[in-house]
Amino acid sequence: MRQRILFLTGRLAEPRLRQVLAAMEEDDLDWEVRDIGIQVAALMTPDLIRRRVPRESVAADRVLVPGYCRGDLEALSAEFGIPVERGPEDLHDIPAHFGRTRLGIDLSRHAVRIFAEIVDAPMMTIEAILAQARAFAADGADVIDVGCLPGTRFPHLEEAVAALHEAGFVVSVDSADDEELRRAGRAGADFVFSLSETNLRLADEMAATPVVVPANAGDLDSLVRAAETLERAGRPFIADCVLDPIPFGFAASVARYVELRRRLPEARILMGIGNLTELTEADTTGINAALFGLIAELGITDVLAVEKSLHCRSAIREADRARRIMYAAKTLGRLPVGIDPGLAALRDRKPYSTSPEEIAATAGEIRDRNFRIEVAADGIHVYNRDGHYVARDAFELYPRLEVADDGAHAFYLGAELMKAQTAFELGKRYVQDEPLDWGVAVPRAAPDLLARPAPGPTLQERHDKGRGRHGRAGRSE
Questions:
Q1: How do strand 84-86 and strand 113-118 relate by DSSP bridges?
Q2: Cβ atoms of residues 86 and 477 within 8 Å
Q3: Mean pLDDT score, 434-459
C-alpha cells in the first residue's frame, strides 16, 4: 500500500527538499512538501506546527519534520491522529531514511568467526586480560585468543583460561611450545593454535579443536595430510595455510588458500589477517575490505585478527563490519558498493551534498547574520546576509568574517572551518555542528533525538543576543 507522507520544512530548505524527493524512487510513496512559513526549518517546534498546520489540512499517513526539530512529538502525534516523526538531520539523507540506498540489506548476518588475539597475555594481569577480552568482544570478536610469547614464562595461563571461561568467553590459546599447548588443553581451552604433522599427537591429549598449519612454510601437502588424519579420526579441526606479508610471498600464499579450498571443499579454513594489517603501513579499513572480499569468495570460515600496532587499533571492528558487508554482497549477488559506508573512513563516495550553484542560491536568500558553512567541489562556503565567501583554506576565510573581537564565536567558527577544510581536502561529507563520520574507525553512538532537552537558547544564542554579534548558523533542513 502506498504511504502518504507530509514533509514539513522552511523556506530555505524547500527547493532542496523537493529535489531530493523528486530523485527518489516513488514506488510506494506519495509525498507533499509544505513550507510552514519559517526561514530555517531547524527552528521548527511542535507549538509552531500546531499554529501553522491545521489538522484538517493534513491528508497523510504520517508527518515528517526535520531532525533538529526539538520538543514532544508524541503529544503532537496524538493531536493529529497520525505519527509525527523526526527525519534525518541532513535532508540529503532522506533517501537512506526510507531505505532507498540500502533497501533489503541485512547486516546482522555473516559467515565468518573472528578470533581476536591478546598478543602480550603472559605480560598482563588477569584483570587486564579480561578487560581486553571485553573490549574485543564489544568490537565483534567471537573467540578470545590468548597469545603466548616465545621464551616468556606464562605461569597464569590456566588461570587466564578459567577466568575467561567464567566471564563467558570462548577461548583459544596460541603457542609454538608443545608444553604450553598441553597446559592449554588441560585448562579446557576451546581451540589451540597451532598443530602440524610434527606435533599432531597433541590432539589426542585434549578436547580442544586444533588449528592445523603446514609443517614447513608453504608446505600445503603436509597441511592437507594433517587435516585428513584428523578427519579420519572424526576430530573437528580448522586448517590454516598462513597468509604471508607483502612483498614476501603474499601472492603465493593467496594461491595456496585457493588450492586449499579446492582440496578441502568442506573444511573450516582460517586466515590470519595480521600479517597484512600489522605489517603494512596503510589504513587497515581498505586492507580488511579487500581481504574479506577474498574470504567471502573462498568461503573461509574463520579469521585471526590482531590489534598490536596502534595503526591497527580498530582492526577488529573493521573485520566485523567487513564480514557483514561481504556476506551481503555475496548472498545478494551485488558489488560491495552502496551497502554500508562503515569502511570508508577517509573518503566518502558522495562527499558533496550540494553544488556551488545551490549554495549560492541559498546564500542569496539569507536575511540574518548567522553564518552557514557548507562544503562543495570548489571549496568551503561561508555565508550570511552580509556576504558569501569561498576558499579552499580556512585561514583565507577567517579575516573576512570580522569576529576577531569575539572570542567565543571566533573559537566556534575556527573549529568548524578547520573541520570543513579537513572534509574538503579528504573528500568527506561535512555537516555543520556535526562530527565528521569516520566510519568504524571512530565509532560514535547514534544521537538520541527523543532525549533532546526542551527548546531553549543555547550558550551561543545567549551570547549572540547579549552582544549583537554574528550568530551561529541555523540548520537549513
A1: unpaired
A2: no
A3: 60
Q: Say how far apart CA 436 and CA 347 lie, in whole Å.
A: 11
What lies within 8 Å, CB to CB, of 343 at 6+ separation is 285, 286, 288, 289, 318, 321, 322, 325, 439, 440
Which cell numbers in the block locate residue 48?
Answer: 509552531
Residue 443's pLDDT is 83
Say yes or no: 371 and 437 in one domain: yes
pLDDT tens-digit map of 155-197: 999 999 999 999 999 999 999 999 999 999 999 999 999 999 9
Whole-prediction pTM value?
A: 0.77
Q: State which residues form the domain around 80.
A: 3-97
Judge whether 346 lies within some domain.
no
- Does 218 lie in the same domain as 80? no
Percent over 70 (pLDDT), the chain:
91
Among 97, 127, 162, the domain-final residue is 97
167-184 burial: b if 16+ Cβ within 10 Å, else e: eebbbbbbbeeeebbebb
Burial code of 46-72, b = ≥16 C-beta within 10 A, e = fewer? bebbeeebeeeebebeebbbbbbbbbe
Query: Which sign, positive or negative, has the C-alpha torsion 345, 346, 349, 352?
Result: positive
Residue 233's pLDDT band (boundaries 50, 70, 90)? very high
Residue 90: is it exposed, middle or buried by C-beta count within 10 angstroms (0-12/13-18/19+)?
Answer: buried
Alpha-carbon Rg for the chain in angstroms: 28
Domain CATH for 320: 3.20.20.20
Residue 106 in domain: no
CATH code at 23? 3.40.50
Residue 65's φ and ψ, nearest 5 degrees, are -110, 165
Enumerate residues 6+ apart whose C-beta is below 8 A from 234: none
141-142-146 Cα angle (round to 5): 80
At 97-129, the pLDDT tens digits run 776 544 447 899 999 999 999 999 999 999 999
Domains identified in the chain, total number = 3
Note whether 259 and 247 are within 8 A (CB). Answer: no
Q: Are 248 and 280 in contact (CB under 8 A)?
A: no
Whether residue 343 lies inside any domain: the answer is no
Asked if residues 118 and 139 have their Cβ atoms less than 8 Å apart, the reply is no
Boundary residue ending a domain (316, 332, 348): 332
pLDDT at 15: 87
263 and 300 housed in the same domain: yes
3-class DSSP state of 147: strand
Residue 108 lies in a domain: no
